[in-house]
Amino acid sequence: MMTQATTLEEQARITADGMRELTDGFHLVIDALKLNGLTTIYGVPGIPITDLGRMAQAAGIRVLSFRHEQNAGYAAAIAGFLTKKPGVCLTVSAPGFLNGLTALAHATTNCFPMILISGSSEREVVDLQQGDYEELDQLAIAKPLCKAAFRVLHAADIGIGLARAIRAAVSGRPGGVYLDLPAKLFSQVMNAAAGKKSLVKVIDAAPAQIPSPAAIKRALNVLKSAKRPLIILGKGAAYAQADDAIRMLVEKSGIPFLPMSMAKGLLPDTHPQCAGAARSIVLKESDVVMLIGARLNWLLSHGKGKTWGEGRKKFIQIDIEPREMDSNVEIAAPVVGDIGSCVAALIEGMGGTWPAPPAAWTKAVTTKREENVAKMAPRLMNNNSPMDYHGALGVLRTIIKERPDAILVNEGANTLDLARGVIDMYKPRRRLDVGTWGVMGIGMGQAIAAAVETGKPVLAVEGDSAFGFCGMEVETICRYDLPVCVVVFNNGGIYRGTDVNPGGSDPATTVFVRGARYDKIIEAFGGVGVQAETPDELKRAVDVAMDSGKPTLINAVIDPAAGSESGRIGNLNPQSVLREK
Ligand code: ADP
Ligand code: TZD
Ligand code: MG
């Protein structure tokens, strides 16, 4: 048994010993985090973790205090995506924990590694439901919403507890992990040497998972048989940080590739093989599709139906999660392993030369792409006031072209869907957005984490509704003086600002205050606020912000009638046959 003093007498005895120094739960948590290179915490302080934050900061951990745990959680989740290390979010019990839980579930859904650490009430009181301060059975509630959940009751188990959390978060398919730390744990005292020994440095937290040679051979055979092959890159491919290998595979194969939203930039959107602007024909007309770190979920119409055309497709799927295979349609060639290892094995298996895909196919894709790009071009150059989406996005597209290293954060409906299509990305992991759930409110948390984790300038393009979910964090951006430029696409509402309530004098459910000045919000905290009414004004203001690195919020006035219901996914709305038009 390890020496562990949980009572004052024991503590006194050890102190009296004079031979041994003491440590406690607070210090062990901090030491365990540092030992494992987890040196940034996103959270909100309060009972019982206020001192943990203070002491962590004093110990050299960067502790970013947010205004709401959900935003801190989104920051931790995207930090996990950007770094391949679990992002850490720290919250108080019950309400703080619940506020962080949405982000934890979001991290799990998106396969981002994250650890939510929450203080909690004493087991004895919670289990008898005796009404402790902020009492809630947090562990039980977290379990179904994350990849794994652990509770540590003894200081001597803090090292093991954190090690389990780290491994669970990053190994295999990454995801969210909940770590429950009851208040009493923090003040538990134990011998410092024993405490040090109890810590665990996690070795090889995400071990390589090598694909079987047979799976590689099968995949290459299917690929070779293709007349109209397509590669789809998903955010798993961006997460894997196997950028050079993926580029080599795509270029060696000569196959057109389609990046999913957060995989944009893995290869530049301007790459000659990029089929981003020919999405509908490559999905419909391809005969063999290789998925790399992308799921056949709703974002890819489940791999079937109208989007995918008549002919039967053969799918090759590279994924670390074996159970992902056949989740929606038959996978002809499953390749289970980590993307780096799988792609390397595929390249090796291709040998010295690999037959180029039939020219008729690659030419058809290129022609379509050029047609669509040409069709879009004049719309992006309009200087209308109030702006429409295309006019405003046209200048933001130029901004990113001129600053390919900057990170683009993007949320909203029209603001999201149109920006995704219009703004070309040039480098991996530079586009962060709403992810698999299409969740509103990720923007400020992602912008803060992107700036903190990468040190690069951040441009956050936000629908006015989306911004409303997380807008108070502009204070956080100002407080830490982060190089974030927020552009609010202010069309006065959700999808449009033109709805009228047919049943009374209240405003319609989808509209906001007309002529709102979001730029004033950041001025309250010492940041730069700008009103932009034309694309020229918008361009100037964003240029200044990106060059100065000063926290800036630009209120971009968008025509309230410019958007469409639900952006590009209006078809997912259920329709009432009884609704009056
Ligand atoms: P997108 O939304 O961009 O299409 P998804 O989130 O649907 O992407 O898919 C990401 C996939 O990538 C998940 O199925 C996940 O298991 C997988 N994945 C994540 N990291 C790795 C990795 N290192 N190696 C292999 N697969 C991975
Ligand atoms: N709540 C959460 C957490 N996520 C959501 N996706 C929604 C509600 C529903 N929703 C959307 O799917 S998009 C959206 C909401 C509320 C806002 C769209 O308005 P916007 O963008 O101002 O952000 P546009 O440019 O006006 O379309
Ligand atoms: Mg809007």
Q: Can you describe this structure?
A:
This protein has 581 residues and is of the alpha/beta class. It folds into 3 domains: 2-198, Thiamin diphosphate (ThDP)-binding fold, Pyr/PP domains (Rossmann fold); 213-366, Rossmann fold (3-Layer(aba) Sandwich); 382-571, Thiamin diphosphate (ThDP)-binding fold, Pyr/PP domains (Rossmann fold, 3-Layer(aba) Sandwich), CATH 3.40.50. It is built from 23 helices and 20 strands. The strands form 4 sheets. Strands 4-3-5-6-8-7 form a 6-stranded parallel sheet, sandwiched between helices. It has a 6-stranded parallel sheet with strand order 16-15-17-18-20-19, sandwiched between helices. Strand 15, helix 18 and strand 16 (431-433) form a beta-alpha-beta unit. The protein is globular and about 80 Å long. The mean pLDDT is 96. The protein binds adenosine-5'-diphosphate, ligand TZD and magnesium ion (MG).
Rg is: 26 Å
Taken together, the total number of domains comes to 3
Which shape, going by the Cα principal axes? globular
As a percent range, the share of helical residues equals: 25-40%
Strands of the largest sheet, in order across it?
Answer: 4-3-5-6-8-7
Do you know the CATH architecture of the largest domain? 3-Layer(aba) Sandwich
Low-confidence stretches: none
According to CATH, what is the topology of the largest domain?
Rossmann fold
SS field, number of helical segments: 23
CATH superfamily of the largest domain: Thiamin diphosphate (ThDP)-binding fold, Pyr/PP domains
> Which ligands occur here?
adenosine-5'-diphosphate, ligand TZD, magnesium ion
Largest sheet: 6 strands, parallel
